[in-house]
Amino acid sequence: MNSPYSVNNSDNCYKNKTSGISLNSNAGLTMMHVKELNKIVFIVTLALHLVTAGSAAATVIYVDNSTDQIADFNTIQAAVISASPGDEIIVKPGTYEENIVVNKSISIVSESGNSSDTIVRAADVSQDIFSILANDVSIKGFGISGSEYSGVHVFGFTDCSIENNKLFNNSCGIDLYIMSSGNKLDNNEISNCLTGISLGGGIYNNLSNNLISNCSNGISLFDSSNNFLENNLISKNTEGIYLTGESNSNILVGNTVVLNEKSGMFIYETSNNLIYNNCFNNTVNVESETVSDKNNWNMTKTEGINIAGGSYLGGNVWTKPDGTTYPEKARDTDLDGIFDSQYNIGGTQFIDYLPIKGSEPAVITVSNSTGPVADFTSIQAAIDNALPGDTILIFPGIYEENVNVHVTNLTLISQSFSRGDTSWDTIIKAANSLDDVFYIIADGVTICGLNITGPVNYPSSGIHLRGVKYCNIESNQISNSYTDPTLNISSENSSLILDNSGSGVGSGILLDSSSSTLLDNNIVSGNGISVLLRNSTENTLLNNSASDSVYGIWVDSSSNNSLEGNILSNNKIGAYLKISRGNVLSNSKVSDNTNSGISLWDSIGNTLSNSTASKNSVSVVLRNSSANLLSNNTVSDSNYGLWLYSSSNNNKLNDNRVLNNQIGIHVKASSGNVLTGNSASDSNGSGISVWDSAKNTLINNAASNNYVSIYLQNSSETEFLNNSVSGSNYGMWVAYSSSNNLSDNNVSNNRFGFYLKNSSYNRLSGNQANSNSGHGIYLGFSGNNILDSNRVASNSEYGLYLLDSGNSSVYNNYFNNVNNIYLQGSNTGTSLNTTLTSAKNIIDGPYLGGNFWATPKGDGFSQIHADKNGDGICDAVYAVNTEGIDYLPLVDSIP
Q1: Which residues, 6 or more positions from 515, have their beta carbon under 8 angstroms from its beta carbon?
Q2: Which of 71, 413, 459, 727 is a plausible cystine mate for 448, CB 3.0–4.6 Å?
Q3: How far apart are CA 227 and CA 243, in angstroms?
Q4: H-type helices in 667-757, by residue range?
C-alpha cells in the first residue's frame, strides 16, 4: 500500500522540499520535519516580537506605482514597513511585482475591490508573494500570481482573512501552515496551481465559497482538524479534496465537487469527519487507502433545503458525468428527497445512510408493437410502476386505454415527438367512452406529443385534470372520434372531427378545480367543449387551437387565468367566460364562429386585448359583465363587432379597431362604460351605437364611412367628447334621448353632421360640423336643447335646420354656410342669443351674446352690419323669422 504522503500532500506546493527526498516512508517524513525546524523557530521569535510591540491609532496608507497620482508609497512592502498594527493599506489599481512580508496586524486591500485590475506578481518566483507572519492580517481584492511557492502563505498565525482574491499560476494558491488557526478563506478564485488551498496542521479554519479549478489538488488537508469547508466549488482538478493524516473532526457541507479527473475526494486514515449535503459528480467520487473509517457521511435526517433542492438534510448527492445516479435503481417512495436505500460508496467501505435524491429521473418505456423492447406494453402499467419525477416514453402505436395518472411530477411523452412534427403517430384511444382518456389527479404531470381520441361522451374528457396544480399539457392533438391511421388519408382531410350537434359529446381538455397549469400548443377539435376550465385559477392557455366544437374555450367560475395566442375557429362560441373574473385573453385569433367569437356572461374584471376577431355572428359580446377592459383588438366582418348589453356596466373599451361589420360597437341597457380611442369604420349600420343606456362616455373615438357613425337611441347622460366622425350618411344621430352632452367633436364630411330627432335637454358645445353634404346640425321635434360654441361651416344645405324644436337655446356659434339657418314648423321659445355677458366669445370678441352669421361670399349678416360702439355686437338684430331672432348677433372683429 502506498503512503498518503505522496506528491498529493500539502507539501507538494514546495518543489525544493520534495526534490530528491523519498516521501514513501516515515524516515522521509522525519527529514521533512527537521528541515522545517529552523523556520518554526523563526516564526515563534517573530510572534514574540509582535506581542511586545506597541500600538497606535489606525492610519490609512495609500499605495500607487503609477505616475498619475500621488500616494504615500509606490510599493506595498514599503507601506507595510511604515505601517503600525491596525493600519489599513489601500492599493490603487496597477501591477505590482513584489514579494511581501506582512509582520503586523494590518489590512491590505485593493481600492477597486477588483482582482482583475490590481495584480500582485512575484518579483522572485522562488518566494511567496504574501508571507503572513502576524495575527489578524487581511488580504482582500487582489490578483495574485507567479510564485513557485505560495500566493498567500500563513506561517502558523491566527484570525487572518483572505477574501475575494484571484490566485493563479502559483505552486500553491493559499497555504495555512503549522498550527494556523481561526483563519477565514472566503470567496477566492484559485486556478492553475499544484494545490489550490493547503492546510498543514491547521485547526479551526473556515474555507467558504471558494472556487477552485484546474489544479492538481483542489483542497488538501494534512494533519488538520476541526476545520469547516462550506459551499466551495471544486471542479476540473486532478483530485478534488485531499484528506489525509490526522485530519480529524472536520466538517464538509454544501460543497460541489464535480468533474475532477482522478477522484472527487481522496481520504486516508482520518476519523470523526462529518461529510454531508455535498454534491459529488466525478467518474470516481471517493478514492481511499484507509484501513478503517470512522467518518460520518450523513447527518441525522433534519428538515431543511438540501443541495439538490429537497426538503430534508441527510447525506450527499452521488452522481457521475454519464448521468448515473447512486444508489442505482433506488427509489424515494415517501417523497422526502432521500433515497430509501443506503449507498455503499463505490470502491470504498464507506456508507452514506441517507443519500440525497438528485434531479435525474428514471425513464420508463412503453411499446405495444413488435418494434423496440420496452419496459411495459401499456401506459397504465408504466404509471403504476413509476415514481415521482419519472418520464414515461411512449413509442408510436395505438394504445386503447383509459389512463389514471396518480404519480406526481410524472412526464408522459411520445418517443417520436419533436416540435413542428404533425405525424401524431402515438395514438391513445378511449377504451371506454364513458370514462376520461387521461384522468390526472397528481400535481406536476406533463403530457406531451400524444394523439388522444374518443369517442368520449359527456361528462368525460380527453384529458381531465382534477384538483391538481403545476401540470403541463403540451403539443397534443385531442379529438372526439377515432380515424384509423392506416387509411393513409392526409391529416387535414381526416381531422378526427366528430359532428358535435349532439349534446352527449364530451370535452377535449377539462381543468376541474386546478391551478398553475400550462396548456400549450395543443390542437383540440370536434368536442362539445374543446377546453373547459371549471373553478380553476392561475392557469395559462398558450397557442392552442380549438375548433369545430360547441365551445372552443369555456372558462366557468374561474379566475386569474391567462389565455394567450390561441386560435378559436369554426365553433359555435369561440371563447366563453361565465361568472369569471381577472382573466386575460390576449393575442388570439377568433374567427368563423357561428354564434359569438368571445362571450362574457356575468363576468367581472377580465381583460381582452391585442386579439383579432372576424367573421363571427357577434365577435365580442358582454352580458351582465362589468369592469372589464377591451383593449387594442381588431374586430371585423361580423354582424356585431363589440356588443355590451344587459347591465354590462363600467367597462373600458380602449383603442379597438372595428371595421366592416353590420354594427361596429353596440352598447345596450348598460351604464358607466368608457370608450376611448376606438376606431369604427365601414359598418353597414352604425359604427358606434348606444341604446337604452345611461351615463356612458365616448372620448377620442374615430368613426368613418358608416351608415351612421355614432348613434344614440333612448339614452341619457351620455358624454361624447373629442370624437371624430366623417364619411357617413349620419355623423352623430341622437334619437329619443335626453340630457346628453356632445362637446368638442368633429363631425365633418358626412351627409348630415349632427342629427337630433325627438330628443331634448341635450347640449352641443364646442363641436365642429363642417363640409357635410346635407345639414351641419339638424334638430327635428327636439326641443329644450342647447347649442353653443360650435363651428358650423361649408355645409351644402343648411348649417342649422330646426323642425318643430322649440325652447332651444342657440348662442355663441360660428356659422359660415351659403344657408346658415332654416326654421320649419313651430319653434316657439327658441332663442338665438343669450344675455349679454362679459366673456370671450367664439370669434374672440369681448361679449357673449348671439351667434356669428357669415357666408363664404362675405355677405353674411355679421359680416356686413356695423358695430359703432365697438362692443363686438352688431347694432342691428338678425331676424330669421318671427320665431327666430338673434338680438345680439356677433360682429366680425377684423376690420
Answers
A1: 469, 536, 537, 538, 539
A2: 413
A3: 12
A4: none
In this prediction, residue 488 carries a pLDDT of 36
What pLDDT, on the 0 to 100 scale, is given for residue 489?
28
Greatest distance between any 2 Cα atoms in the chain: 136
H or E stretch at 189: strand 189-191
Cα distance between residue 693 and residue 712, in whole Å: 9
Checking if the pLDDT of 829 tops 50, the result is yes
Residues 723, 679: Cα–Cα separation, whole Å: 10
Tell me if residue 811 falls in helix, strand or coil.
Answer: strand
Q: Answer whether 128's CB lies under 8 Å from 113's CB.
A: no
Residue 40 banded pLDDT, cuts 50, 70, 90: very low
Report how far residue 68's alpha carbon sits from residue 77's, in angstroms, rounded to the nearest whole number: 20
68 Cβ contact partners less than 8 Å away, ≥ 6 residues apart:
none
Contact by Cβ (8 Å): 659, 638 = no
What's at 578, amino acid-wise? K
- Taking alpha carbons only, the member of 376, 365, 436 closest to residue 404 is 436
C-beta separation of 145 from 170 below 8 A: yes
Single-letter amino acid, residue 592: D
Rg of the chain (C-alpha set): 43
Q: Is 825 left (phi over 0), alpha (psi -120 to 50) or beta?
A: left
Contact of 792 with 814, CB cutoff 8 Å: yes
Q: Return the pLDDT at 372.
A: 75
Residues linked to residue 380 through DSSP beta bridges, in sequence order = none
For residues 800 and 815, the answer to whether their CB atoms sit within 8 Å is: yes
CA atoms of 16 and 23, how far apart (whole Å): 13
Q: Residue 396, preceding bond cis, omega within 30 degrees?
A: no
Is 181 strand, coil or helix? strand
Residue 396 pLDDT > 80: yes
832-886, pLDDT tens digit by residue?
Answer: 999 999 999 999 999 999 999 999 999 999 999 999 999 999 999 999 998 899 9
pLDDT (tens digit per residue) in 513-550: 999 999 999 999 999 999 999 999 999 999 999 999 99
Is pLDDT larger for residue 321 or for residue 254?
254
Rounded CA separation 115/142 (Å): 4
CATH classification (class only), 362-482+504-549: mainly beta
Residue 453 · residue 429 · CB < 8 Å = yes
Question: For the whole prediction, is pTM greater than 0.70?
Answer: no
Amino acid of residue 735: A
Residues near 884 by Cβ (< 8 Å), separated by ≥ 6?
A: 802, 821, 823, 827, 830, 832
- Tell me the percentage of the chain whose pLDDT exceeds 70: 90
**C-alpha–C-alpha distance, residues 96 and 75, integer Å:** 7
What's the first-to-final CA gap in the chain, in angstroms? 120
Q: Specify whether the CB–CB gap between 259 and 234 falls below 8 A.
A: no
**386, amino acid identity:** A
Q: Give the residue from 630, 708, 622 showing the smallest Cα distance to 669.
A: 622
Say which DSSP state 361 is in. Answer: P
Nearest Cα to Cα of residue 155 among 230, 45, 243, 81? 45
Question: Cell match 397557442: residue?
Answer: 543
- Partners of 524 in the β-ladder: 478, 546
Q: Where are the chain's structural domains?
A: 362-482+504-549
pLDDT of residue 835: 97
630 closest CA partner among 621, 617, 640: 621
**Alpha-carbon span 402 to 413, nearest angstrom:** 16
378 burial class (0-12, 13-18, 19+ CB within 10 angstroms)?
Answer: middle
